[in-house]
Amino acid sequence: MRAGLSGLALLAAPFATLFDPLPAGAAEAVVTVQGANAVVILDLDAGTVAARIPVPGSPAGIALSPDRRIAYVTRPDGPGLAILDLDARRVTGTLPLPGGPLGIACNPRSGAVYVADWYGKRLFVLVPKEGTLVPDGEIAVGASPSGIAVTPDGSTLLVANREADTVSVVDAASRRETKAIPVGKHPFGITLDPDGKRAYTANVLSDDVSVIDLAEGREIGRVNTGERPYVVALAKGRGFVTDQYTASVTVFDLASLERLAAVDVGDHPEGIAASRDGTRLYVANWGANTVSVIDSGTLSVTKEIAVGDGPRAFGDFLR
Prior knowledge:
By secondary structure, the protein is mostly beta strands. Helices cover 0% and strands 54% of the residues.
């Protein structure tokens, strides 16, 4: 079994969903493959590996720039960040960061990048400048920040604080936490709906999903899941949650919060994302070394793509 910051399956370690324009079906997936020290780019139409980019430091978290041409990848064993040109298929720069960089998100308006320090109570703020990123301060949040989400207008950050059992609401302009919302036990991945009205956290140790109403600033419901839920994706009025210990994806109705089904996928699923048209879900199976493709209509796995040792894809990984 794997452990430590570079292997958080047992400690509960991915997901921030952004809502930048994507092709209807999403042409490529950009998957961090931690054990192989690489980022793999998948051609989703062909179901094949289109490119493999070496990225040392146990790459885990990922965010894409607003134009979807640059990937920002956390390297917990760097520790630091790698910057990838996705068209050129290469690393263009690295940036050292202290602590335990893991969760990451990009502001869809400003292009600022936020990196969670797993070992601390802070986010690092990085801003684009002359084709790279430069450090631009920190934001205080709860203990062991994990997943980060940014509202579509770029004004608000939401941070799942694993050890605090809270979600921090942060004003992006002032860079201050305005509220800490109690949720389930050990929230890890956090996902926003496209309107920025509700957020969903996967609570690893209480085996459920917390539903947060952002206007009310509180949890309004819970959904039971399989064992060790990690990340939530949304598609066609339903939520899809990766359950690590049951090797499944829990499906629930977003309106009623009723649990509908469980779809079997590979061992230790972590990152998950939905195509923009909502017809397909892509699941990174950390233990099985594959990406599963789920048809959202039939709730069946239509393809398994081999990607290498330890895919994480914790974050925004479709382009």
